[in-house]
Specification:
By secondary structure, the chain is an alpha+beta fold. It has a single domain, classed as Alpha-Beta Plaits, CATH 3.30.70.1530. The protein has a 3-stranded antiparallel sheet. The N and C termini lie far apart (58 Å). The mean pLDDT is 77.
Length: 105
């Protein structure tokens, strides 16, 4: 079996954005590895050389990953996990109704 060649697709300071990008890419079925200097990870550093996190993807997926990240940075990828509240939903919430069934306030 051939060994995977990993390529850096993005570098960021700190783990927070790196984890967000990992989730975004994995949702598109792209394998991701995050790499940070061990000391930086232990101490939660977010600046300098020790705070830098590299987002790596297989070389065969590099171009597709770059496209996805470019769309993300340009705001072309929207959060579709939550439906937009329509006028009827806003009215119901304004009346003080609890939107969760069976839950009393």
């Amino acid at each position: 079996m051939a060994e995977i060649q990993w390529e850096v697709v993005y570098e960021t300071n700190g783990m927070l954005l790196a984890e967000i990008l990992r989730g975004l890419l994995e949702a598109q079925e792209i394998r991701v590895v995050l790499s940070q200097e061990g000391v930086g990870r232990v101490y939660g550093l977010t600046v300098g050389t020790l705070g830098r996190v590299q987002v790596l993807v297989p070389a065969s997926e590099l171009e597709r990953a770059q496209q996805i990240l470019e769309e993300y940075e340009n705001g072309e990828i929207a959060d579709q996990s939550l439906p937009d509240a329509g006028p009827a939903d806003e009215e119901n919430l304004a009346d003080g109704d609890n939107p969760i069934e069976g839950e009393n306030t």
